[in-house]
Here is the input.
Amino acid sequence: MNTFGLVQIGLILLCTTTMSSLNCNHLPLQQRKVIENSLQLLDKMGKKFPHRCLREKMSFRFPEQVLKPKQKETVKMAIEEIFQHIFYIFSKNLTLAAWDGAALEQFQNGLYHQIEQLEACVTKKQTQYFWIKEINKLKLKKYFQKIDCFLKDKQHNLCSWEISRAEIRRCLQLIDKAMRKLYN
Here is the structure.
């Protein structure tokens, strides 16, 4: 390969790296927009919370401490983990949910795009954040398993999906609150 070809490849790599880092610099703003959009899509997906589902209300107890560390990287890792769990829950057995399919698909696509963005931007500092990350992962896994088990126990009926949708809304609001504290 000639020198000119190597220069072109080098310029392409430089531009790609620069563009990637620019996207990472705007990550907090992007996350806020994704969360705002996700909250709107959650509203659009379904109708008002059915009154008949009020008696089935369940407390899942979101582990808010995973969003309170002082290190931004730890919070970003927790948010990435949360988005992955939400994506997983909203990707299965939705037949009884009776939601707006287009809004649901947009919700899933937004989550998927944000997961990819976070994976690209979050530095994987294994030694410095390893234990905090693992403890947070376990707390989040337990929290989302409660939601998943609730859905399974209720055979993914309409009320279980509506309760889960309300819980995910609360979860996204907590992420938004943490992001505002972290970046303001």
